[in-house]
């Protein structure tokens, strides 16, 4: 049995990654700040599902608190590896509060890697983002230039990647950096389009859509993303790897059309100007993930959205109260 630290364990990807580790018989110590960037009831819902596993334990703490992070390593058994998935997410909010993103997304990474170095933990899987590929040629390849971030969020993730390389170079940490593309699925974040659109279409509220709907996204189902994350524990040295669906981007208006079909309802769309901090399109080149991790996504868009809608309907009694 292995013992893992998963930061951001109550988050969308972190909870699913934790579940997969627990399902295969490993032990997980989850860490999450439980902050109120979005309605904490979603995090509590994910956390409750993990607490059913006897091999799961949980600590509420912020990764930017160096003392608390160090104490976790000091007071725990030696971790097999760290899945560092905790981060401040969201492009638009980062424009208003870049200080929060620098503290969590950069200083938090430093705190975790310093504690790893002090306690002889060699492997970290670090969450990054496709937002770094702004203005690059599609499909986005890991070798593309990523030195022109459009938002503080993207800039903080780029800073974390380069800091991680310094720790690999100086201290020999084995680091897998995963650039996630647009993730959707049950218990998703309410600040992201998939869950918002499902609820708004179902309730007959207008969908706020920034742009004309022709912008495309590489939508990837959460279980596929978590499976790739778990596989990235293997010894790789220092690698940056895309995790996305890898097919032609799905236009937002097509994505809405699929939800309409599953719900049997039509969307009311309130079109707003495109936001400069957003990316027009995303599309992952997943050649490296196939080669290094023997990974590729399995869940098709329609099936993934059916599962998302099913979860939404099963949990509507409390989802209807969540602020979107």
Helix content: 40-55%
Beta-strand level of the residues, as a percent range?
15-25%
Quote the average pLDDT.
95
Instruction: Tell me the quaternary state.
Output: single chain
Characterize the biggest β-sheet: 7 strands, parallel
* Count of individual helical segments: 12
Structure classification? alpha/beta
User: Order of strands in the sheet with the most strands?
Assistant: 3-2-1-4-5-6-11
Shape: globular
**CATH topology of the domain at 3-182 and 219-246 and 284-299, anyone?**
Rossmann fold
CATH architecture of the domain at 3-182 and 219-246 and 284-299: 3-Layer(aba) Sandwich
Low-confidence stretches: none
CATH top level label of the domain at 3-182 and 219-246 and 284-299: Alpha Beta
* H and E string: EHEHEHEHHEHEEHEEEHEEHEHHH
Total strands: 13
Rg, Å, rounded = 19 Å
> End-to-end span in angstroms?
40 Å
Structural summary, described in words:
Keywords: NAD. This is SDR family NAD(P)-dependent oxidoreductase. By secondary structure, this protein is an alpha/beta fold. It has a domain at 3-182 and 219-246 and 284-299: NAD(P)-binding Rossmann-like Domain (Rossmann fold), CATH 3.40.50. 43% of the residues lie in helices and 18% in strands. The protein has twelve helices and 13 strands. It has helices at residues 12-23, 40-50, 66-75, 91-96, 98-118, 152-171, 193-203, 222-231, 252-263, 287-293, 301-314, 316-319; strands at residues 3-7, 27-32, 56-60, 81-84, 123-129, 174-180, 183-184, 206-210, 216-217, 220-221, 238-243, 250-251, 268-272. Strands 3-2-1-4-5-6-11 form a seven-stranded parallel β-sheet, sandwiched between helices. α2 (40-50) links the parallel β2 (27-32) and β3 (56-60). The chain is globular and about 55 Å long. The relative contact order is 0.14. The model has no long low-confidence stretch (mean pLDDT 95).
């Amino acid at each position: 049995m292995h013992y893992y630290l998963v930061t951001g364990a109550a988050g969308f990807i972190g909870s699913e990654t934790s579940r997969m580790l627990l399902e295969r018989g490993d032990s997980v110590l989850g860490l999450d700040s439980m902050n109120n960037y979005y309605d904490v009831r979603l995090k509590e819902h994910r956390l409750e599902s993990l607490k059913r596993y006897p091999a799961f334990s949980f600590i509420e703490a912020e990764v930017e608190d160096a003392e608390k992070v160090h104490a976790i390593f000091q007071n725990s058994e030696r971790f097999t590896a760290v899945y560092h998935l905790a981060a401040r997410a969201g492009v638009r909010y980062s424009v208003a509060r870049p200080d929060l993103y620098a503290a969590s997304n950069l200083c938090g990474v430093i705190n975790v890697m310093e504690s790893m170095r002090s306690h002889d933990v060699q492997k970290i899987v670090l969450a990054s983002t496709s937002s770094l590929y702004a203005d690059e040629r599609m499909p986005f390849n890991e070798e593309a230039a990523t030195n022109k971030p459009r938002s503080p969020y993207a800039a903080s993730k780029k800073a974390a990647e380069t800091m991680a390389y310094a720790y690999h170079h100086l201290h020999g940490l084995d680091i897998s950096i995963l650039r996630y593309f647009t993730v959707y699925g049950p218990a998703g974040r309410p600040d992201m389009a998939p869950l918002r659109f499902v609820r708004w279409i179902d309730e007959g509220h207008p969908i706020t859509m920034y742009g004309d709907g022709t912008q495309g996204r590489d939508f990837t189902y959460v279980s596929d993303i978590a499976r790739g994350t778990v596989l990235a524990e293997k010894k790789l040295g220092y690698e940056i790897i895309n995790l996305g669906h890898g097919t032609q981007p799905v236009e937002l208006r097509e994505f809405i059309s699929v939800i309409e079909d599953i719900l049997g309802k039509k969307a009311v769309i309130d079109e707003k100007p495109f936001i400069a901090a957003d990316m027009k399109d995303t599309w992952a080149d997943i050649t490296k993930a196939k080669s290094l991790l023997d990974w590729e996504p399995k869940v098709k868009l329609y099936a993934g959205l059916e599962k998302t809608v099913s979860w939404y309907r099963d949990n509507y009694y409390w989802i209807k109260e969540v602020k979107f």
